[in-house]
Protein: Glutamine synthetase
Amino acid sequence: MAQILAPTSQWQMRITKGSTTASPMTAKMWSSLLLKQNKRGPTKSSAKFRVLAVKSEGYTINRLEGLLNLDLTPFTDRIIAEYIWIGGSGVDVRSKSRTISKPVEHPSELPKWNYDGSSTGQAPGEDSEVILYPQAIFKDPFRGGNNILVICDAYTPQGEPIPTNKRARAAEIFANQKVIDEVPWYGIEQEYTLLQTDVKWPLGWPVGGYPGPQGPYYCGAGADKSFGRDISDAHYKACLYAGINISGTNGEVMPGQWEYQVGPSVGIEAGDHIWASRYILERITEQAGVVLTLDPKPIEGDWNGAGCHTNYSTKSMREEGGFEVIKKAILNLSLRHTDHIGAYGEGNERRLTGKHETASINTFSWGVANRGCSIRVGRETEKQGKGYLEDRRPASNMDPYIVTSLLAETTLLWEPTLEAEALAAQKLALNV
Structure:
């Protein structure tokens, strides 16, 4: 199992004259020995002892650990802000750091910045400057103190959103008064897969081979069932520290695959929190020497894919009579099925096959407690007559800004024709 943090500092002391062996010492033992040495008086030779970095379980002791863990708060008001943005693929996260003169509480207090878009596939070399607009702030779990992570979106120097900036359009939808009045809630279930670094094969799987069939791994415990729990736990705590609204985590059906949930979040906040959580996960897997993939079907064959199921409700859905509002929303979603599928992540056709707890990508369906449908409604929602729906179509690599805003647009702002609505109602009645 991969290790997240640098191992506890161990030091090896070697007597330079006549000694050919060395024994590991903890930092506490080393300090104790220095105290004893001082009690004896000054040494005759300052070169008598030498501290060496050693390897322990394949890791070279990191002698920068003390500097990395420095708390700057008592010494300066200045902080480090890590500006984070989405790269040219629409899935990768990029970041760079800058010093800010004092702690801040709101992104409006931060300056805009820029980066070389030609190096991220987002601008031509002859006009490569892309401008970063700070949009959301989170505490930095890696640097601690008053240091922050800053979620940004990207614009041209003229102030136009670049094509990969999906946040700008989402913000417009969430600023619509009809949407504001309905207070849209989202709970997003982010699945991901951990891969071994050199072979790009799932963590815990025999290289070039396969583990036992699916069944014992989902929410399982044990060295032969759970691979990467330390990464999941470290990520969970780091997100809580950062202020991300993470609500849970669990091992998934395919070994080496995990899930965490973010929400309930309101409006644009859902996208900001998912992107911040993805960045933190990338940093943790970087430290652990494990590769993170959001591919929706990382292993072909009889293995579950990776999704990003999105739970959604509006104020009207959560109130008495809300189940009828949910049914109307499902009708609208059925009419825009193709639009949603086209925006729900690259490679999703390899995952939405009608098998492994998915619906077919070509057919819209809904059902109560049915995980093989496009839209699932929980038993409790049916019983209470109000609640939420779960859109099971989004892939693990979906852009949360697109998915959340499209759900709001389709169910709150978009109106189908009467003929289309009647036809869709007939189809859905037959489907159920």
Notes: The CA atoms of residues 78 and 101 lie 5 Å apart. The two ends are 45 Å apart (CA to CA).
